[in-house]
Structures are given as C-alpha cells and as structure tokens.
TrEMBL record:
GO terms for cellular component: fungal-type vacuole. This is Uncharacterized protein. It comes from the Eukaryota. GO terms for molecular function: serine-type carboxypeptidase activity.
C-alpha cells in the first residue's frame, strides 16, 4: 500500500498560472563521483530567519532526465563545519520531503497568511539538515520539465503545446511540471537506492565543509522501506568505492512510524482496531464489520495468503495484486467505515492538521526563485506512486529486516519511533517488527518512561544497546509535529549516543532498559470530550500563553476548557479546544501544543 499522505498538493490552488523558465542564477559545481550539482544560497527569510545560519538549495543532476532537488540548512548555535549531517526524506512513495521541512522538524513553519515563522524545535538545533525530494518526479525534482495543465480532481497532467493556459483550464492549474512518465522514475525501493547514493555524492562533493563528520539518515512512513535498503546500499558502496566517489561516514538510522514488513503490519490493522485494540479505547467497528475484516485478512486466498505468496514467489504481479487487495480490503475498511483519519484516529476525516499553508507558499514566485526551482511544487507524485504500485513494492519485505539487523551488528544507531494514535503505520505493528529483527539483548529489555526536559512523560522506550523502539503518546503519524519537544530531544540523544529514556547515559552493547515487557499506558476515552463555543463547560477568559504564538499562526481560536475533575496520570495537563476558523471543526489539544486530540 502506498503510504502517501492525505490531501494532494493540487487541492490548494495557486492564484495564477506559473510557467517557469530555467533558473539562470545557479552556481555550477562538480560533486564526488562526477555528479553535477547546481545550487544557490537561499535568502534569509524564505525559511531560516537567522541571518547567521546559511541555507542552500538546488539540484543534483544524477543522470539524463534525472534531476533531484535538495535543500540544506546549517545547524544552529554551533559550528556547522563540525556538526553531523542528517539526511531527511519523507515516505510515500512519492511524498515530498518539504512535508518534513515545513510541517515537522525544519527551521520554519508557514502561517495562514503565507509568512514563515520560527520553529524552536527544529532538528537544526542539533545537526546540519539535508532534505531531499526523491525519487525523480517527487516534489521539486523532475525528469523533463514541460508546460502542462493539472486536473484539480485527479491530479492528471495534460501537456500543453506552449506556455498559454487554454480557456478550458483553470488558470491556477497551468504551469511547469515534471513530465508524467513512470519509466523516468524508480519503480521500487532497490531501484531508488543508487539515485539516493548519487545525490549524496553530488552534495558532499559540492559542500565538503559540511560532509566531514558523521551522517545520519532520518525518515518516516514508507521510509521504513527506504532507510534500511538505502543504507545497506551505501555500506556496500563504501566497501567497494568507485573511482572519484567519497566514503560516507554513516552512523545511524532514525525511522518514524515506518512501514517495514507488510505480512506483520497488515495484520496490525486488525490488532489496532479489534484485538487488543488501541490505547484510546476507540472501537470503530460493529461485530459484523470486525468479522469482515478478519475474513479479509485471514480467509483462504485473502490478504495474509496473498502477501505470503508475494514473499515466496516475488513476481511483480503477485506482489502488486497482494498489496492492492490488502490495502482495499483490510487497511481501507477503517477509512470507509470509521470516517476517521488514518494518520491520527483522534480526528475526523479530513484532518485539518498539520496545516498545509506551505504548499501554496512554495508555489509563489518569490520562493520558487529564491530556491532555484524549475518546476511547480506538488506535495505528492502520482507517477512515483503508480510506478511503485506496478511492482508491488509496498507489499514486499525485501531485505529490510536483514538490513536493520546489519546496522545493529555494526554498532550503529537504529531508532524506531511511533506515534500511538496513527493507524496507517501503527505502533503495534512496529513493535512486532522490532521483535522480529533479532537485536541482541532486546527480548530481555523492558519498557521505561521517556523523561523530557518538561518533566512530562511523553512515551516509553525499550532499548538494547544502540537499538531502540519508542512509543510516543498522543501523537499521530507526523510525530515531530504533534510532539515537537520529545522528538527533538530523542534526535539529540541519538546523535550524541545517549540513552533514549533520560539522555544521561552513554549507551554501549550491554545497555538494556528495565521495566515491563509491554507498554500499557492508555490515553482512554477522556480525550473524547470536545468543547464547542457556547457549551456550558467552556471557561471564558484569557488565552493560554503556552503555545499561543503557534496557535495564532495556525489560524485557530483558543478557548480554555474545564476538565471537570479528570486528571492525567502523566502530569497536570490542561486541555483546551481549538475552533478552526476555516470550517469551525472543534478539536481538543494539549495546552502545550504537543498533542492534538479529537473525537466527535
């Protein structure tokens, strides 16, 4: 199943046609392995607001009709030439890494008026960050730039003969796009690995001053496929270095809500919704619907059998049919019957969070010129999704678990973290995968609380050596958005080689967390209560100061809500309601804005 995030980029219209000429102000450079790189320094204020922190963006021209967009940010408050380099890629397949940059851990967010504002929890507080749109035709990356019209309903591209927007087309949908051609992008995770490696060689050669230290690889969602396979490929290339290539000082992998092993994780949809269920006590199905899901999963010739056949035979047809069947008949039952958001079960669908103001922002001429983009921005790529669907890549386990075990055996950092309100790549499936990897000592480790600097327990961790599995409370699919503080501190601890629980102990091969074998904390139904304007339990008064600026920038109204005596066992948490200005949808959020909780 494609892990593409909801809400396509074309759902947010531009105000005018944007046919884009080729950028003429890019600096030409030659990277390692003879990879050509074009780039420019991004003006302060496009995203990073500190004039003392540099940012660059551009393209790695890794082959004919293969132009990969990247955006680099120096680390804040430290010497960028000695700071580690972290590569971030989003999932999909075909999801732009601008999602991570502007909705999760980048230096800025975009407000409702299209203005950037500072993200104090940016991962650039700990590392140089390199965001890459891959494979080709994802985000700002392109194969062949063409004038085209994009249909607002289907996202289908119609190539135009010139840069005149026809009368039948909505003016905002005309522009310069990457030519829609599945043969000009990767169609599987293994096929995408060489392109990622070439992109890194190009960047590191063009910017050796940022490439001398350790390199970490961070990702989420379909990144559960990307990261293990890509990094095994990098290690293979390091061992057999081609002429002109540079050895990559690879140090570890961080994966959020990853899609790793379909045979395990398709079963976890039943586990998460039926037995044992989720920790929000949300039961979405009737008894007959539960029986239907069980049969679709385990009935003769159904999902489990088809994925097993894919594993055994490995043909494109077997794997594509299996993945499609499981997605439609198992995973999407939740979407069709529960009407909740897959990426955060606390929300009705469509989920208004995180806000997507960045999509329109990236398609403004000022920003596009400031970063040297040659095509209009699309949040996700249909071409990439269809290409991967044709091989059934999402239904394959590939060498993923073996590759993860190799990282552990090489004493590299490997972190799996999961927001526990995500159904799409849920934590129960991730936990089951973590046990299948075979990390030394892991079965003897126990869950212990994660202690953050705010003294609130935001989750639990089970850790053996440098391998750890984290369950993050009250978080959807995009953990750095929902829980920015704990995700930043997790990242800082990973880079420093410290334990995930406290950040005070240097971990070695013998390190084990102590605690229960299961993480049993339940958020429960207390999060169901939603205050609406005019409700008797709404306390009129001063806005909460905590997180106030972030609330204002998202375009919501904050109303304090009385808890009626209910008390969280994780601290003195106060909940407030958000009233979205755009559609008046009532939402509950933690006053610290590190959790957003909604039920009808």
């Amino acid at each position: 199943m494609s892990r593409l995030l909801a809400l396509a980029a074309w759902a947010l219209p531009l105000s005018f046609a944007q046919f884009i000429p080729a950028p003429t102000d890019l600096i030409q450079a030659k990277g390692y392995a003879n990879i050509s790189v074009r780039y420019k320094e991004v003006p302060t204020g496009i995203c990073e607001l500190d004039p003392n922190v540099k940012s660059y963006s551009g393209y790695a021209d890794i082959g004919e009709n293969q132009h990969v967009f990247w955006w680099f940010f120096e680390a804040r408050n430290q010497n960028a030439s000695t700071a580690p380099l972290t590569v971030w890629i989003n999932g999909g397949p075909g999801s732009s890494s601008m999602i991570g940059l502007f909705q999760e851990m980048g230096p800025c967010y975009i407000d409702k008026n299209g203005n950037p504002y500072n993200n104090p929890y940016s991962w650039t507080n700990a590392s140089n960050m390199l965001f890459i749109d891959q494979p080709t035709q994802t985000g700002f990356s392109y194969s062949i730039p063409v004038p085209a019209y994009k249909d607002g309903e289907s996202g289908q591209l119609t190539v135009l003969p010139n840069t005149t927007c026809p009368d039948y087309a909505k003016n905002w949908a005309c522009g310069t796009y990457s030519y829609f051609n599945q043969s000009l992008t990767a169609d599987s995770t293994p096929a995408a690995a060489p392109s990622m490696y070439k992109t890194l060689q190009g960047f590191m050669g063009a910017f050796p001053q940022y490439s001398s230290g350790e390199l970490f690889f961070a990702t989420e969602s379909y990144g559960g496929h990307w990261a293990p396979v890509f990094n095994e490929y990098i290690l293979e290339q390091n061992a057999n270095l081609a002429e002109g290539a540079r050895k990559i000082n690879f140090a570890g992998v961080i994966i959020g809500n990853g899609w790793h092993d379909p045979l395990i994780q398709y079963q976890s949809y039943y586990n998460f919704t039926v037995n044992p269920g989720n920790t929000y006590d949300y039961d979405p199905f009737t008894d007959s619907q539960k029986a239907r899901m069980y049969n679709n999963l385990y009935g003769p010739g159904n999902c489990y059998d088809q994925i097993a056949d894919c594993y055994a035979r490995g043909t494109n047809q077997d794997c594509s049919l299996a993945d499609n069947f499981c997605a439609r008949q198992v995973e999407l039952l939740f979407d069709n019957l529960a009407k909740r958001d897959e990426l955060d079960i606390r929300y009705l669908s469509p989920n208004p969070f995180p806000p997507e103001y960045f999509v329109k922002y990236l398609n403004t001429p000022k920003v596009r010129q400031g970063i040297g983009a040659y095509v209009n921005f699309s949040k996700s790529s249909n071409a990439v999704g269809l290409a991967f669907g044709s091989t059934g890549d999402g239904g394959r386990v590939l060498t993923i678990l073996t590759d993860m075990k190799k990282l552990i055996d090489a004493n590299m950092t490997l972190i799996m973290f999961y927001g526990d309100a995500d159904y799409n790549c849920n934590w129960l499936g991730g936990e089951a995968v973590s046990h299948k990897i075979g990390a030394p000592g892991y079965e003897a480790a126990g869950y212990t609380d994660i202690i953050s600097s705010d003294s609130i327990v935001h989750g639990q961790v089970k850790q053996a050596g440098k391998f750890s599995f984290l369950r993050i409370y009250e978080s959807g699919h995009l953990v750095p958005f929902y829980q920015p503080l704990v995700s930043l501190e997790m990242f800082q601890r990973a880079l420093a080689g410290l334990d995930m629980a406290t950040g005070k102990t240097v971990v070695g091969k013998g390190y084990l967390t102590k605690g229960t074998q299961k993480s049993t904390y339940r958020e429960g139904k207390r999060t169901r209560r939603v205050a609406r304007e005019g409700d008797e339990d709404v306390a009129r008064g001063k806005e909460w100061e905590t997180g106030r600026e972030r609330v204002k920038n998202m375009g919501v109204e904050v109303i304090p809500v009385m808890e009626g005596g209910e008390q969280s066992n994780r601290g003195n948490n106060v909940y407030v309601s958000w009233k979205m200005n755009m559609n008046k949808t009532p939402v509950m959020v933690h006053a610290s804005l590190t959790a957003m909780l909604m039920f009808q």
